[in-house]
Model the fold of this input.
Amino acid sequence: MSSPEPYKIVVVGDGNTGKTCLLMSYIKNEFPIDYVPTIFDNFTTQTVVDNNEHKISLWDTAGQEVYENLRTLCYPNTKCFILCYAINIRQSYANIINIWIPEIRHYSNNAAIVLVGTKSDLRVKNSSKFVTTAEGKRLCSKVNADSFIESSAKIKHNISEIFVEAVRAIKKQDRTLHCSDKY
Ligand SMILES: Nc1nc2c(ncn2[C@@H]2O[C@H](COP(=O)(O)OP(=O)(O)OP(=O)(O)O)[C@@H](O)[C@H]2O)c(=O)[nH]1
Done:
């Protein structure tokens, strides 16, 4: 019997929000200090979620607008988008609604979404400069994402949790689609 296709998970969001670092932290347990726009290769790995083993394939994308045509080539068959904004860059938070939701929904209506507020290590308590956790949660329900997590690749906070949530969201979405097929 052939093994099932890996779940395709694509990481998107503005440039400089920490997408490559998040993947490197998860896969290689590394945190690259210098900003090097997207060099992470696609990577397939195994993960155990709720006592079941799953194969996942991870795709990095380039956030800059000039790469839009290239980026969208990898959207077909995506099971889950990890949608990133950086908590210290308010524009990247606004762009979730301005740019990213319209772009990913144009290519995929059914994919699950995990919303991630990156660089949580940078937050200074009570400073309005930073996107708050409450604002993140509000955005999550506004865009109908499956879950919301704040994380930091730098201090390895909530990194594997992102992918656990992604697999759970994919399984939930698969169940919903199977059910609706029957009616
Ligand atoms: N403090 C802090 N800095 C981070 C974190 N993650 C990434 N960075 C820094 O943010 C910058 C951008 O990180 P990248 O991972 O290259 O960002 P990207 O979203 O992949 O950027 P593009 O490839 O342009 O789309 C780098 O200087 C990283 O060192 C984090 O969790 N905390």
